[in-house]
Structures are given as C-alpha cells and as structure tokens.
Amino acid sequence: MIMVKQIMKTSKKKILELNNEYITDNSGNSMPIILLVFLVVMIIGSAVAYSTSQVFSIVRSEEHNQMTYLAAESALQRSMANLDRYLPREDFATDRGITYNDEEQFIDDLVRALNSDSRSEIINNFTSADGVQVYSDSSMNTADVSLSFSWDGSERTRIGNKLRFPLEITATAKMENGMFKSNGRKAVAVKEYEVWIYNPFELNGAVYTLGDLVVNGGGTSTITGDVYVFGTGFDKPNRMDQYHMGGICAYDSAKLHIEDGSAFTRNLLRVGSFYETGTDKCAIIVDNDVVAQSIQAFGINNDIVIIRDAYTFDDIEMNGADSYIAINGNFFGMNPGDDNFHDTSSAVVNISQMYAYGTVNEYTRSRIVINGYTFINGSTFKMNPDGTANHKLEDVSLAWQGNQPVYIVENKNDTMDYMTALTSRDRNGFSVLLGDIGWSRNERLNEDWATWTEWITEIKSVVAGMSNTLPSTPPAKIKGFCHNAMAANNTLYPSNVDSLEIPGNVICHANVDGLDSQPLNDYYSDSDWWFNKSAVTGIPKGLENMMYLFESHVSVFARKKYPNSFDGDISYNFNSGMIPSGGSTTEFLRIRDALDSIDTSLWSCIVKFPEGGNEEPVDLVQHLEDYYGVPSPTPTPSPEPSPEPDPDPEKFFLIINLNPNRELVISRDKVNGIIFTMGKLTIKNGATLNGAVISAGRGYDPVSGVEGSAADSYVLHGERVTRLPRVVEDVNIHNFRNGDYAALVIQNGGNISFPGRDELFDKFELTAIGFKDILKEIF
After folding, report:
1. H or E element, residue 747
2. Exposure string over 207-226, b if 16+ CB within 10 A, otherwise e
3. Separation between Cα atoms, residue 350 and residue 368, nearest integer Å
4. pLDDT of the residue at 11
5. What's the pLDDT at 769?
6. Helix (H, G, I), strand (E, B), or coil: what is residue 319?
7. How confident is the model at residue 109 (pLDDT cuts 50, 70, 90)?
C-alpha cells in the first residue's frame, strides 16, 4: 500500500509538472493568431475593395450620365443657334410649302415641318456618325441626340406679316461606352421666334402696282374698288424734298375718284407738283379709307378729300397754296418714330404758311381738316441744317405767334423747355381744324361723293388770313391722343386730361387681316391718363401694333425697311412667293411664271405678249379687233380661209405682257378682263378697263436710272438688288419727274371698274369653261 501511494504521488507530481510546462510554454501558438488576423483583414479588405469598386462604378456611371446630359445641352445650344439662323428667314415657310390660313394652323404646320425636316438646315438628330463629342479622349464614343420641337398653343403675337411665338426645343441624348450606358437624358429650352407668314396673293382690288399710279391731264378718272400702290421712295431717310416721292399721284388738273374702295400705298397719296405755278385744280377723293406713308398736297389750288378714315406711317402734310386736305372721319398717325427720322413721325403739319413769308396770301389760306378723332403717335421736329432731326415740337401743326411759328420765336434746343415756353401763353393754331366745329356741307358725302366740292367751299369760307371764323365754338377737348400738344382751332391743346379726351371703343373700318374692329380697346383706360400714355401698355403701343398690320397689308408684293441710323440706306425687298413644286421665288414672279405656263392654245381668252419682240406701244382695243373674234365652241380644221375677226365687245380676256419695255395702251372704248404686265399700262381719253390690273412698271438701275421691270433685280458688288423704284441722291430725279417709274397712267380721263373677285372670274366662265379654276389658283 505504501508502495502504491508512493507511485501515485510520484505520477501526480509529474503530471502537475507536465501541465505546468504545457501552460507556460508559448512556442508554436502565433500561426493560428496570424491566420485569424489575416482572415479578418481579408474579409475587411474584400469588403472595402468591393465597396470601392461599387463606388467607382457608381461615380463613373453618374459621370457618364452627366456627360450624356451635357451632350443633350450641347445639342440644344447648337439647335437654337441653327434655328436663329434659319427660322427667321422670309422664305422658310415658302420653301416648305406652308401657307397661312390662321395663326394656330400656321404655327402648327411650322412645328410639324421642323420635326420632319429632312434638309440640312434644321438639325433634328445627331447620329453616331456625327454625334456630339463630350469626352476629350477620342477613344470614347460620342452621344446620339434627337431633337423635337413643340408649341403649347398658349401664346402668339401677330406683328404685321410675322408671328411671334415661344418654341419649345427638347434634346434627348443616349451614349454607350463599354459597361456604361445612358439613355433618355433630356435638356429642354423655350425661346421666342418671329416667323414670316406666307399668305398668297388674292385679287381683291382694282389696281396693284409696284411703280407709281399717275393721273394727269383734265377730266375725272374713276377707279371702282381698292387700289394698292407701292410707289417710288427715297434711298435714304430724312430727305427733305418729299415732293420727289411717288405713290398715288394726281397732277395737272386731274381728278381721281376712288369709288367704293380704299387707297393703300407704301409711299405718298399726293396731289400737285412742287413746281406748279397755275391755278388749275387737281384732286383725289376716296370713298373709304386711305393708308399711306404720308398724305401730302403740293402746288396751287389742289384738294384731297377722304370720306372715311386715314392712317399714316408718317405725316399728313400741307405744302400747297390755297389747298385743302379734308378727312371726314378719324385720323391715326401710327408710327411712334425713333427720334432719328423726320419721315416716320406720324404728325399733322401745315407748313404752307412758311412759304407766305409773314404776309397773308394764298399760302396762308391752306388748311388741314379732320372731322373725327385724331390719334397722333409721332411729332413734328425742329430740323438741323444737315437734315437730321432735332428736338420734338407739337404733334399737330405749328403753333404761331404773330406771323412766325413759335419754335422760331422760342428758339429752344430741348423739348421740355420748348413745351414750357409754348404753354406759357396763348398761341394761335389756325392752320389745322380738328373735331366737331359745326361743318354742315359734309353730311351727304357718304351718299353723294360729288358734294366734296361743297365741303371744300365751306372750309374755304371760314378762312380769315392767319385765323378762322369757325361756324361754332371749338370743342374744349379734342377727342384723340398726342404726346405733346395739338395746335388747332385758333388755339392750343396741351397733352393733358383738361385738353384731350381719349374716346373708348374706337371703331376701325378698314378690312385688314389680323386687325380687330376696335384695335385700341386693350390699350385704353377711362380713368388713368398715364396708363393711356404708356409706350408699353397704352395708346402708343396700340397704335404701333396697328401700324405693323397696316404695313403688311399695304406691302402686297414688296416692302421697305428703315435703317438703324439716319445716314443708312432704306432697304427695298420683294415679298417671297412659293413655287408649286417646292422652293421660293418672289410673289410677283410667282404670278408671272404661273401665267406664262398656261397653254394659250387651249384658251381663246388669253392674249399674250412674250418677253422679246416688238417694243412699240400696243393699242389693246385695236389689237383685239385685229386678232381676236368670238371663238367657235368646237373649232374644226377647215381648208377654207378663216373669216374676218368678229370681236365680241363683252368678252373678257386675260392679257399678259412679259416685256417691261412694251407699253400697253387703252386709248378708246373699253377692254374687259385682267391685265398683267411687267411694264406699264396707260388708259386715256375716257377709255375703260372693266376688270383689274397688276402692273410692275419700269425699274431703277444705278447706271441708266431706269431699266427693265420693277419686279426684277440686278447684281451689284456680287449681291442681288431689287429694281424697285427709288430716288437715289439726285442722279435720277428727272426719271421720277418724267414718270419713268409709273406703272399705271390715267391720262385725260379714264376708268377702271372692278366688279369683285368672284364676279370677275365668273365673266371668264361664260366664255371659257373651267378657266375660273385656273384664275383662282394664280390670283
């Protein structure tokens, strides 16, 4: 037992020693720990690496998206720059076959054309071949961008023959580079554009000319229907010799009556010549309205009577002796002017008294009369010796002090100083008569135009030297608008609530596309005078908007535009026309080419004079008698000689002259039909045209002064320039005075009677079945 215990005790001790040795010996234990730490680090590192990879991918993807968006932005900017270049071009619509019916339709058609345009002008998309490069690294792909255009229909503004509207442009980009793909990244912009309207010509009047309408010699000439004349203008603004401007002109004892129609001209409606010395009367009487650059009287003993309303882009101006301009209705001087050009001032000015040189004579007898409202958006100017405009004066006429105008007596150089001096004492405004002052001889004008002479006689009867003996007390307030003052009715009407009354609901009778019958209603306040004077919201803005529409209406085939500075040139341009097969021309040449393309062998009612050939004047009545009789309904070949022509005096013809050097003349009896000529038409000795005339007249040439047709152009310094008639410096004044730019001359009495568009076309239908449709397509 003792032995066993000893053994056990010894073993236990060894075991204890072994345990103690095992516990205290650390060799070989670091590897598991390292492996464990490495495992932890690997796990954490993998997580960090994965997270870093994910972040990198996200960042690169977002960068790719942003670069794709930048591509859309870049394409958007390129598209807008492209639209800025092409969309405002006049031929943009005509090149794409877009015509005008109404504003919404026109813009919708334009937007559709933009979205489907296959031309290189409008960029609709950038494909991989020509995509938008946004990475500097050429190994990176470009973005494909598609563009779309839209209009929400909420806004549009008519500005004459233009439409302004906000166009929305959307650029949608996509791009792919390896694992990175970005789709549908969009950039959107809205920008306002002005686009030209193409409204094809319609024959709705008796006369359309590019050159002047000149009526001269004795007798009374009658044009029944509307008259549209572009006329001879100036090369530069601020020329003081406006007696060298054309338009609708009556000279040398001639009287022109525009019956049941209005007169529209981009230059003057004028009577008399500045060089007249005799006392024979010439006159223009218009049953309806007049729209003109200016209405002016020159010479001695000449009259203008407008039975309804008058609208001007410049002045009503009296320069003649013992002469009268009388408007039975309202007057609207629409142009606000720009302080640079005296011939865009839209004032009423009687300067004939200036030629009296302080004495009472035939020049002090001349008067301007406006029987209705008077709206003046411009003003008269004090002029500098070099012809430039100085400060503004009265808006109507010239106030007088004794035998001198106040602006001479009060030699001021500032409008405010001048107006202070003008209103500081009573001033005489005798040369213009405004408003309801008791006329009685004008009451039957609407029923009988011939009573115009009775009204002129009544006006003459009140003239008393440099004053007037008016039939009734002048109105205390003038109904209308002006900026500074109206000198009229033997007194002065300053521009304030005490002197002017702006009438509401002013009716506009003129039938002009886009013009409301009450065009000033939105610009009128019956309680806020300063609102009414605002150039942004008031009457001036309303008058300016009217001007844009009237300018468009007057400029049928051509237009002129004033420069930005007084020493620049006035630009003359043709209106665009549409080629049926696509593309653009001018509207006048569109008609010419359409008429030229008619197969004359199919229609016996066409008389055509080609471009070349004899340039001697053609007596149309004699020509018709010699060559045109009543056609057989079904002509058959016959070996027998043709019978002598048996002209039908009631037959209507389409007469086409393509040679501008060939003058057409109606010297007796009558011609029925439509006359289209690249040159001039003369009607004389009481002859009549039953139908209508479209006449270009001769054109301006810088070498010879007059050459070719006013509807053509020439090349100068590599650029094409219109031959529209104009007086350039002093080199071609004699051409104007000789009537070289006249497109229609009525001499010693003559008549044109327009029955109406459909009625006129129906006349052809009687003799040429189906021809009416051809006329409707062309005219």
Report:
1. strand 742-747
2. bbbbbbbbbbbebbbbbbbb
3. 7
4. 47
5. 74
6. coil
7. very high
Residue for token digits 């004579």? 361
- The gap from C-alpha 336 to its chain's centroid, in whole angstroms, comes to 16
| pLDDT of 638 over the 50 cut | no
Structure tokens at 369: 């009369």
pTM (predicted TM-score): 0.87
Q: Are 471 and 439 in contact (CB under 8 A)?
A: yes
Between CA 626 and CA 128 the distance in angstroms is: 71
Is-contact 143 126, C-beta < 8 A? yes
Cα–Cα dist 390/708, whole Å:
40
Phi-psi region of 357 (alpha: psi -120 to 50; beta: other; left: phi over 0): left
Q: Which two tokens stand for residue 539?
A: 């009457």
| Average pLDDT, integer, range 630-635 | 40
Position 676 pLDDT exceeds 50: yes
CB 456 within 8 A of CB 303: yes
Among the listed residues 243, 294, 252, the one whose alpha carbon sits nearest the alpha carbon of residue 733: 243
Q: Which of 153, 156, 155, 158 is nearest to 197 (CA)?
A: 158
Measured CA to CA, the distance from residue 304 to residue 715 in angstroms comes to: 40
Per-residue pLDDT, averaged over 39-67, amounts to 63
CA–chain centroid gap for 493, Å, is 33
Both tokens of 446, joined, read: 């609407």
3-state DSSP assignment of residue 123 = coil
- Are the C-beta atoms of 411 and 405 separated by less than 8 Å? no
Q: Which of 86, 89, 85, 90 is nearest to 576 (CA)?
A: 90
- With H, G, I as helix, E, B as strand and everything else as coil, classify residue 117: coil
What's the rounded Cα separation, in Å, for the pair 242 and 222?
26
Specify the pLDDT at position 629.
60
Gap between the Cα atoms of 318 and 396, Å rounded: 12
At 6, phi and psi to the nearest 5? Answer: -65, -40
Tokens encoding 490: 């033997």
> Is residue 280 within 8 Å of 299, Cβ to Cβ?
no
Distance CA(471)–CA(253), nearest Å, equals 30
Beta-strand runs (E) in 450-489? 478-481, 485-488
In the beta sheet, which residues pair with residue 641? none
Tokens 């071009």, located at residue: 89
| Element of type H or E holding 578 | strand 576-578
**Which residues sit opposite 753 in a β-bridge?**
224, 690
Tell which residue, 75, 181, 80, has the closest CA to residue 127: 75
Contacts of 693 (CB under 8 A, 6+ apart): 206, 207, 208, 209, 674, 675, 676, 677, 681, 744, 752
Element (H, E) at 83: helix 30-86
Span 206-261, pLDDT tens digits: 999 999 999 999 899 999 999 999 999 999 988 888 999 999 999 999 999 999 99
Least confident of 40-54, 294-308, 540-554: 40-54
Kindly tell me the burial class for residue 258, based on how many C-beta atoms sit within 10 Å of its own C-beta (0-12, 13-18, 19 or more). Answer: buried
Q: Which of 43-52, 672-681, 703-712, 713-722 has the lowest mean pLDDT?
A: 43-52
Comparing C-alpha atoms, which of 330, 391, 239, 233 is closest to residue 546?
330
**Averaged over 707-720, what is the pLDDT?**
92
Three-class HEC string of 147-192: EEEECCCCCCEEECCEEEEEEEEEEEEEEEECCEEEEEEEEEEEEE
Q: Which two tokens stand for residue 527?
A: 């309680």
pLDDT at position 514 is: 87
Structure tokens at 451: 């009573």
Answer yes or no: is pLDDT of 4 > 60. no
Using alpha carbons, list the distances in angstroms from residue 169 to 117, 118, 154, 166, 412.
15, 17, 16, 10, 54
Residue 351 has pLDDT above 80, yes or no: yes
Handedness of CA 630, 633, 635, 640 (dihedral sign): negative
Which comes out higher in pLDDT, residue 286 or 17?
286
What is the crossing angle of helices 771-778 and 587-596, to 10°?
A: 160
